[in-house]
Write a structure and sequence with these properties.
The structure holds two protein chains of two kinds. Chain A is mainly α. Chain A is 75% helix and 0% strand. In chain A, helix 11 packs antiparallel against helix 12. Helices cover 44% and strands 16% of the residues of chain B. Chain B is built from 25 helices and 23 strands. In chain B, strand 12 and strand 13 (422-427) form a beta hairpin. In chain B, helix 9 (213-231) runs antiparallel to helix 10 (237-260), helix 10 (237-260) runs antiparallel to helix 11 (271-289) and helix 24 packs antiparallel against helix 25. The chains are: A mainly alpha, B alpha+beta.
Chain lengths: 307, 760
């Protein structure tokens, strides 16, 4: 286990460097000029040149050099080119906690709903409950979040007036977006658990256990669940990194000042510093969660050894 | 499921063995289905707690929604409407726009005199104008940080009484705007002031010469190419280019000589060799200008210049970051002196500001009401000023506009700002006109999604929606409801902006191929085949007005755009013109491409126009949609045939629209150039009589419209939603003049929170 963690920690900077380089070159060859805008006045050409120099945008090697030095020595991800009075660090500091809280909550909801539906289905396969939960899961997987989100918004905020239509600040603001975000992973988890359990419950060791007098649900919870949970665990790593760094659609629909929006808009406005900052943050979180999943895997299934 | 529970059991074992074991036992004895039930109960409980338990903040007097986070709040640098909207509450200019009359009234200045030649304005500042902050203590610490008794007295005074707004604060603010360092969008607005443009250019050259890189490069290139340059003819581009570069390098050395004149100590290079180098460069350039340049002599002059320049550059290269910053600061201080010397603004005393204009500018007072003309609190800004030692430019700490640091003189102070979330402004307790203010707090919410905006508005959480996109189906739905009499809170106003198509006027495209649109007949023909009525009705469909002129109708009180000179829909005439231009039936007119950024209805509009051009003129048109950044870049480089575009006026004068078409103007995207037009604009600039001046401008616009470097399509409208019975004094005008300090929101006591707004 220690070796695994150490090995992963060694890999970590290499992965980050690779991600950085690829993003950097993609962001650099992208057409367009971040100092430019289609409507309105523009500063004189000399000023634009000087500005480019100040932002290190006139030479990619110089840009890369200063960027890496600043990130490594000061943890400074640079200025944002679109939001000129913000630094990328500020943007992340204001958006990431919000997205992370929302993502975490939605994962908790997804785990609850998904496990519940999956287990209920597996306990009584073919029952009405099972069919019902599978149908709902299917809908959850197929409906895009903007449909779920808008639907929830219309019902709970528009018609019933139970919950605010959007914004951020109180706990009430969390509920609709968290549920919207949870829909897809919940459905996914439900299917994983349901199918996994169904498969395992027909296996030899469960049959043996039941032959020794174990009840079906005892066998399910004591033995089968451990194994059926493993695919859920591997799903959770990337899912956590994904949801916790924000969803463009959900944050837009519910007007949440999280990070999701930047993943699209930074690229559209060619905000190179913001793009790099986002990708590095995302990569770090993703790698960290994958490491956590690996550790949890070993803990769940002692047969697994990492060499 | 059981795993979670076991895990919980295990975790507690670590904490307290006894309890953990106990818990594990109990865990195992419960039947799984009970666990599931318990879990559901817990989830529901958590939900109820979330719904019931959370309180809500107190509502601000006026709440409005914006579409996006703020780009920049610096009053001297910003240019986006949604940025201006909030920042103009925080800073007060010399005069304010009185609404709805759209005339200026006293602001920070209580009165002003204008000299007989209309070139000197003397503003008398009111004695009770104050700088203050929503967080006076922390802001004061930032502005006067020292431990000296004097500094602590300044802090205490500020916390108690605020700081008086002085003429010097205006000069400092205006200087910030004129400094090219910030690349402020609106620097040019100040060029009506005597010497402002000169200073702008001076500082620009000073920065350009700062690290000697370009001078060194110019000399090295010239030495390398001297044979080629001399061999080329006198009018050859290479030769002219080299002469220009050498002349510029020579001129640039002046800034270095100037910088070290009084400071002979290292690490500054001595000035004598630089003076010699400067002269050598000048001689080399003069040689190149002559009919028979002497290669050997030029080479020698260049070599003579190279030595001192290289060593000066070496001195710069050796400076450590601290020394470089000190150097950048010295240059900035020098720029301050130059400003004082060159620019026609002065403060004989703290309450008198004298402005000398380059020429009579009839709209100058209106101009000073504009956000860029805000004063700046010098002590706090200087305390947060840095220098980029590599480029010599000043760098303002972007955090200076954070709520805990910001010092303002407007009707409101910044209580709180959460990036891309909200901005809360509260009434400035030291504001002189506090008695006439309508709201004691204004909250701006950032709500990117328009449906959410409407939902929040319907729920009574938002009073005013100023940013609803006019081109969305939501907007037209709202308008339909209004027409059917189901609501009365939708307001459509003609805006001071025009939606138009740029028609490239350059002789050749960027790739060197000839441009058929260089011929005005072709441009007119294309414009004649834009069915504006149809577009307004079917594509834009929000009560827009078809545009035949570039200057919007009814937006300017004293100017009537020459509508009769506009191009009307006339396919027959267009075909005739095309035939005259040598493209009968559209034959030979190839490569016509419409460029647009993929947003809003630009694409549908382009399709409509392309269709008409194909049907009526027989031209095949390529449609190219792209994202905004690339689009903007191509626009700037004149790298297009036809593009969509939009333009909004900034100040109450037609020049805000017409200057764009002057030869060489930085915003002249179609590359239009007409001597007659330029001449009329120059003539108008010198004309004191307003009526005559307007006639000249009108004539100029008519000439421009005859040439059609652009095809006007429609006059923008803006759409706002607010309940006229609840929100009083909300000004509606084409210019985004707001005066939110006078808006009053009637609080509806009968309405419970969350209850939908009653619609009449």
């Amino acid at each position: 286990m220690t070796r695994l963690i150490l090995w992963r920690l060694v890999q970590f900077p290499v992965i980050l460097a690779a991600v950085f380089l690829i993003t950097f070159f993609l962001a650099w060859v992208m057409p367009g000029n971040p100092m430019e805008r289609p409507e309105g006045r523009r500063p004189p050409i000399e000023v634009q040149i000087a500005m480019k120099k100040q932002y290190h945008l006139d030479n990619k090697w110089e840009f890369m050099g200063t960027y890496v030095v600043n990130v490594v020595t000061k943890g400074d991800l640079g200025p944002s080119l679109k939001y000129r009075d913000q630094r990328v660090n500020d943007i992340l500091a204001s958006g990431l906690p919000i997205s992370a809280l929302l993502g975490l909550l939605s994962l908790v909801i997804a785990l609850h709903l998904g496990l519940f539906a999956g287990v209920v289905g597996a306990l009584k396969p073919g029952s009405l409950l099972d069919l019902g939960s599978l149908t709902i899961a299917l809908i959850g997987v197929s409906l895009p979040t903007f449909v779920t989100g808008t639907l929830l918004l219309l019902v709970f905020a528009g018609v019933l007036h139970w919950l605010p239509a959007g914004g951020w600040g109180t706990a009430q603001h969390l509920i609709l977006p968290a549920v919207t975000l949870a829909a897809l992973p919940a459905a996914y988890i439900a299917r994983l658990v349901r199918l996994g359990l169904a498969d395992i419950m027909t296996s030899d060791y469960i049959r043996t256990a039941m032959a020794k007098g174990l009840l079906r649900r005892e066998a399910l919870f004591k033995h089968a669940m451990k194994v059926a949970f493993l695919p859920v665990l591997s799903f959770l790593g990337p899912a956590a990194a994904g949801t916790m760094t924000g969803s463009f659609v959900v944050e837009k629909v519910f007007s949440i000042p999280g990070m999701g929006d930047y993943f699209i808009n930074a690229v559209l406005s060619k905000d190179q510093y913001l793009i790099l900052g986002l990708v590095i943050t995302y990569a770090t979180i993703l790698v960290a969660f994958n490491l956590l999943v690996d550790v949890a895997y070993a803990w769940f299934d002692p047969r697994i050894e990492y060499d | 499921m059981s795993h979670e529970i076991v895990a919980a059991g295990r975790a507690t074992v670590v904490g307290g063995r006894q309890f953990g074991v106990l818990l594990s036992c109990r865990v195992m004895s419960l039947r799984p289905i009970h666990w599931l039930i318990l879990l559901v109960v817990l989830d529901l409980g958590a939900m109820i707690w979330l719904i019931a338990g959370a309180g809500e903040e107190e509502r601000a007097d006026l709440v409005f929604a914006s579409n996006d986070g703020h780009r920049m709040l610096d009053p001297q640098r910003l240019s986006w409407n949604h940025d201006i909207r909030v920042v103009e509450l925080l800073f007060e200019r010399l005069v304010r726009m009185k609404l709805p009359d759209m005339v200026v009234e006293p602001g920070a200045a209580e009165s002003w005199d204008v000299s007989d030649d209309r070139r000197t304005y003397t503003f008398h500042l009111r004695s009770d104008a104050r700088w203050y902050s929503a967080h006076p203590s922390s802001a004061a610490t930032r502005a006067w940080g020292g431990n000296s008794p004097e500094q602590s007295k300044r802090r205490a005074d500020f916390i108690a009484d605020g700081d008086p707004v002085t003429a010097g604060d205006f000069i400092y603010g205006w200087r910030r705007a004129i400094m090219p360092d910030f690349a402020a969008d609106y620097s040019q607005l100040f060029f009506v002031i005597e010497g402002a443009e000169k200073f702008f250019n001076w500082r620009q050259e000073q920065i350009a010469s700062y690290n000697l890189e370009s001078q060194q490069k110019a000399i090295d290139e010239a030495i390398e190419n001297v044979d080629k340059v001399v061999a080329a003819g006198r009018d050859d581009a290479l030769r002219q280019d080299t002469i220009a570069k050498l002349t510029r390098a020579s001129a640039h050395l002046e800034y270095h000589i100037d910088a070290v004149k009084d400071k002979p100590d290292p690490p500054n290079p001595p000035d004598t060799p630089l003076i010699a180098a400067q002269a050598a460069l000048r001689r080399a350039a003069a040689q190149l200008e002559s009919d028979k340049p002497d290669v050997a002599a030029i080479r020698k002059e260049l070599e003579d210049a190279k030595g001192p320049v290289d060593s000066a550059r070496a001195v710069f290269e050796k400076l450590n970051p601290m020394e470089r910053e000190a150097r950048a600061k010295a240059w900035y201080d020098r720029a301050g002196e130059e400003f004082k010397k060159t620019v026609g603004v002065s403060a004989p005393d703290d309450r008198t500001l004298v402005v000398r204009l380059a020429q009579p500018t009839p709209y100058f007072l209106e101009l000073t009401a504009f956000i860029t003309f805000s004063p700046a609190h010098k002590p706090s800004l200087e305390a947060q000023l840095g220098f980029d030692g590599d480029t010599g430019m000043i760098v303002q700490d972007p955090y200076w506009m954070r709520a805990d640091r910001l010092i303002c003189n407007g009707p409101y102070v910044l209580e709180r700002r959460r990036f891309r979330r909200d901005m809360l402004m509260t009434a400035n307790p030291k504001y002189w006109d506090r008695a006439n203010m309508g709201n004691s707090s204004i909250l701006e919410l950032i709500v990117p999604e328009k449906i959410t905006q409407l939902k929040l508005y319907d729920a009574g959480k938002i009073d005013w929606l100023p940013d609803l996109p006019t081109t969305s189906t939501t907007a037209s739905d709202l308008l339909k409801e209004q027409k059917a009499g189901r609501r009365n809170d939708v307001h459509v106003i003609g805006a001071s902006g025009t939606y138009f198509y740029n028609l490239n006027c350059m002789e050749k495209f960027l790739d060197g191929t000839p441009n058929p649109l260089h011929d005005p007949r072709v441009r007119r023909a294309l414009s004649m085949c834009i069915d504006r009525d149809l577009i307004v009705e079917k594509v834009a469909s929000l009560g827009q007005r078809p545009a035949y002129t570039f200057t919007p109708i009814d937006a300017l009180p004293t100017y009537q755009p020459p509508v009769e000179a506009g191009v009307r829909y006339d396919p027959d005439g267009a075909r005739k013109l095309l035939a005259e231009a040598g493209y009968p039936g559209g034959e030979g007119l190839k490569g016509i491409e419409i460029l647009y950024n993929t947003a809003n209805e630009h694409e549908r509009l382009a399709q409509q126009i392309a269709y008409t051009w194909k049907q009526e003129l027989g031209i095949s048109v390529k449609l190219s949609g792209m994202e905004v950044a690339t689009f903007g870049e191509r626009l700037k480089n004149h790298d297009f045939v036809v593009t969509r575009a939009g333009w909004f006026g900034d100040y109450l004068d037609p020049t805000t629209f017409l200057e764009k078409f002057q030869t060489g103007n930085g915003n002249n995207d179609p590359g239009y150039s007409n001597e007659q037009f330029d001449g009329l604009l120059r003539q108008a600039a010198g004309e004191l009589d307003q009526t005559k001046r307007m006639a000249l401008l009108r004539e100029a616009e008519a000439i421009m419209l005859r040439d059609q470097p652009i095809a006007p399509i429609y006059q923008y409208t803006q759409l706002e939603v607010f309940d006229p019975d609840r929100v009083k004094n909300m000004p509606l005008n084409a210019w985004h003049f707001r005066r939110l300090d006078r808006v009053q929101v009637i609080k509806d006591q009968s309405r419970k929170p969350g209850e939908p707004e009653s619609r009449k």
